[in-house]
Amino acid sequence: LMEVNSVSKKEENFMVESEREKELKAFDETKLGVKGLVDAGITKIPRIFYHPPDTFNRASDLGHKDYAIPIVDLARIHEDHSERRRVVERVKEASETWGFFQIVNHGIQLLTLEEMIDGILRFHDQDSEVKKEFYTRDLRPFIYNSNYNLYTTYAITWKDSFFCNLAPKAPTPEDLPPVCRYILLEYLNQVLKLGTLLFELLSEALGLHPTYLTDIGCTEGLFSFSHYYPACPEPELTMGTRKHADVDFITVLLQDRIGGLQVLHQDMWIDLPPLPGALVVNIGDFLQIISNDKFKSAQHRVLANSIGPRVSIACFFSTGRHPTSRIYGPIKELLSEDNPAKYREFSIPDFLAHYRKCLGDAYVNATWMTIFLKILGPRTARSETGTGRGCTFGALILHPERPFRVQN
Ligand code: OGA
Ligand code: NI
């Protein structure tokens, strides 16, 4: 009997999985992304977008109002030594406790930021036939699609994105869509320049020589994802961006005025409110590792919203797209007898290979999630509160461990 049961169970899993695959494929083949669904006037989201509920609550739901992600003003750091020391101190504190901060007076003009947001909107608002030409899952200098991990994640998200690399190999204007090519190149170049300053401040915050982090290659690679989050008819059931930490040295993010970005801090979701003219900076896994866990690569997510579209552009400092043979590990100058290395040394390609393998293992849960959805029906993806049922999807989902951690 047990054998019969396990065979039919396998059979059912297979059916569920192939139905899901078919739906994903049909969605992908429209080449119009989530915006295409919204433009077609859907009022219920397809079940491939359903997410499991989250295990953490919003700080605001718990009545905590005094948590705020630090804002750092860079205006006078070049003229005033004591001001620079204060800024380094704030960057240090923010990187140690939050892994996130916002910067103002960073040197990139408001007009450039607004034009960048506008450029992303212009790309998505183009005629469908023109836009489809850019839709691809192949490695090209400009990649537009919905959910780059469509076929490899257990739950897809309510957004469309385009990818563009800048360093070490920049695209030519001809590689990019005419509606946003010049602003995209201009903006990315300015972020690359800003990166040098940020890594100086972060080096100083670690007590190192100001050029330390750039000297070991932290500004060698820069790539960007521009996101477009359409308004969602059932925002409670899905996510704009699921909970994750960035796999890079740092990320510089520009968001528009809609909001929805949240940072996981002390097991609570803290809103990262839009601030006109500001850029969000967050520590990624590589910097957490080479700082030997002094700096935190915090998990974050973006809620789906009934208001939209929301637009953002995330710039990742990492050579992931053009791997180098450089070896990284906890910075020797930071280690001591009391603070031994928490990680083994690795090359970026090794790290990413390991990370992708973990993500592949996590995909097994796509089947389980679909089965549970069949039994229990859709549940709110925002938090556990108010679901009133005993079963936790969250527990079924594997989160890739930061690889190369030494077992102390
Ligand atoms: C990311 C990210 C946040 C946003 O792309 O890694 O976290 O606001 N984006 O779009
Ligand atoms: Ni991120």
UniProtKB/TrEMBL annotation:
<dbReference type="GO" id="GO:0051213">
    <property type="term" value="F:dioxygenase activity"/>
</dbReference>
<dbReference type="InterPro" id="IPR026992">
    <property type="entry name" value="DIOX_N"/>
</dbReference>
<dbReference type="InterPro" id="IPR027443">
    <property type="entry name" value="IPNS-like_sf"/>
</dbReference>
<protein>
    <submittedName>
        <fullName>1-aminocyclopropane-1-carboxylate oxidase isogeny 1</fullName>
    </submittedName>
</protein>
<dbReference type="InterPro" id="IPR005123">
    <property type="entry name" value="Oxoglu/Fe-dep_dioxygenase_dom"/>
</dbReference>
<comment type="similarity">
    <text>Belongs to the iron/ascorbate-dependent oxidoreductase family.</text>
</comment>
<keyword id="KW-0479">Metal-binding</keyword>
<dbReference type="Pfam" id="PF14226">
    <property type="entry name" value="DIOX_N"/>
</dbReference>
<feature type="domain" description="Fe2OG dioxygenase">
    <location>
        <begin position="218"/>
        <end position="320"/>
    </location>
</feature>
<dbReference type="InterPro" id="IPR044861">
    <property type="entry name" value="IPNS-like_FE2OG_OXY"/>
</dbReference>
<dbReference type="Pfam" id="PF03171">
    <property type="entry name" value="2OG-FeII_Oxy"/>
</dbReference>
<keyword id="KW-0408">Iron</keyword>
<keyword id="KW-0560">Oxidoreductase</keyword>
<dbReference type="GO" id="GO:0046872">
    <property type="term" value="F:metal ion binding"/>
</dbReference>
